Fold:
Amino acid sequence: MLNHSEVELFLQDGYVIRRGALSETDIATYRAAVDSILHKCRVEKVHEYLRYVDGERDDIWGVNNIFHPSIREAVLVESLGHPQILEVIESLIGTRLRYHLCTLLVSPEHKSYHINWHRDSAPDGEVPRERLLSRLRSSVQLNGALYDDETLFIVPGSHRREITDAERHIIQNSPKADMPDQMPVQLKAGDIVFYNSSLLHKGYNRSGTIRQTLHYALVVSPPEGEPRNPDGPTSQEWLNDSAFLESLNPRIKPLFDNWLKYG
Structure:
């Protein structure tokens, strides 16, 4: 799915963008599903796993655990196996994969949101270089834009090194400020950016800008023969439901089987 230069770009810069990955039909279908989920969250209030603007419970900028039965949309479950999603991730980190998360990132209704610079594994950005290099092909996350999206800001290449003194000063003192060498990830509707979660990044969605973005992550699963987690996953227990697992198509079922095995 990806050529050698695209894979090398992902390893060196920490991201790769696939333009026009989602068709017009995909976009319309997924928008309708997201609209349904947002109605359930904002109007019916049937889902508790939400990301609130500034911690205040009157506005949300994200919906976690979108495969929870209270809001689950079959087309979004199936989207995880979209060739422009799953095959790209396989090109980047291999075929033995495990589900990690599926989330929606959306525009708040009342005001903008602006989250701090961080690495997902370390909000303060402090990770030894050796650990970062060991993670170059251990996971992939993506933002799939259903509307034009310039919310994600990254520092290309920062996933391969420790933070600089200038970056540390910003994270500790003004964590929303401009960062040296920052880059806005400019996506048109249908574009998908695949990136390493160890990149320094932040989100800034300005008021009045519509956002509906699929935010998924898969990780490399342990090799066959590794001891399985005897307790199973410690979260998202609703995914361990026989009816749900039996409904999955063969292309994505191994992602959840491995999640159940290794947590």
